[in-house]
Amino acid sequence: xxxxxxxxxxxxxxxxxxxxxxxxxxEDFEEGDVVEHDPGLTLTQFGNEGxxxxxxNHDPAYWRSDAAEARGFDEPPIHPDYxxxxxxxxxxxxxxxxxxxxxxxxxxxxxxxxxYAGTELHVESEVVSTATSSSRPEYxxxxxxxxxxxxxxxxxxxxxxxTNMIPRREPVATDGSGETTTDExxxxxxxxxFVTPEGGYFEDFVAALEEAExxxxxxxxxxxxxxxxxxxxxxxxxxxxxxxxxxxxxxDVMGDSPSGDIVTYGDVTRSTALGHxxxxxxxxxxxxxxxxGFHTFVAAGDTVYAFTRVLEAEDRASSDExxxxxxxxxxxxxxxxxxxxxxxxxxxxxRTY
Length: 353
Fold this sequence. Notes:
8 helices, lyase activity, L-erythro-3-methylmalyl-CoA dehydratase, Thiol Ester Dehydrase, Chain A, MC_hydratase, 2 domains, globular, 11-stranded mixed β-sheet, alpha+beta
């Protein structure tokens, strides 16, 4: 009788057995297709607080009932970062589990009413476009428009467009025209002066922009806090959002990758950097994000820091108690290498209201 657990016998069995593969290849996506993602996720207070605490997002409106009510919420709501990460995490099994580079995300919006614990999240994605990668014949490029909705009402809670490289079943011939070159003779042209806001209220950002106006200056500053990535941020947080990408939990596979190890979920990196930035401002509400890019991997042991540039401010907002500010945030590691960047629009509390 054959002992299938005998190491030599089992090794032969593994060599002969087919692998039941997970995820989809580039050829499986066609423009206009709509993917209904089967997994759902109930957004809980435990999940929300776990995400916020590990990414250093300590805005009291998301923790305390009195602060939430003062902000116009019925109770502490689900944080937009956790909502965004959960929405994307649910899509990974169908869209990007095969791997490939996360090229970017834009038009991140929260068009509905505040989201509270107990909301059941349903997610769907539409294929916006597919394209050949001119520099990587083994990949194609796919963009999806994703919508996270309340399962009970169908109300859209979070939406965005993201673009990934997705592995092909068969490489295609390319001319290599997608590769870019850098002119080393170009030198960066930074402003002569950097202006730092004196505080975190809307008026402080307005005053800093006015100080920088009509001179060679930018309102730009770095944040002191850093967060070193550990087992919780690298492995636990993505799995808690149903993100099954092997990049975050399969050390065996990732040992042969450029990182040499599992890497941090991009939304953990992003949320950590934003948590650093928010700690130096009086955030009222999040409006949206654009032009998000992830520049290099972050692994366990890496430390995520943040740098902020203030782009513009206007007095209009959803409440008279706030104004609207547009930021550019750059996350960087302990070697001062950018790992994430994006523009963010947020309502910031006024001091003098």
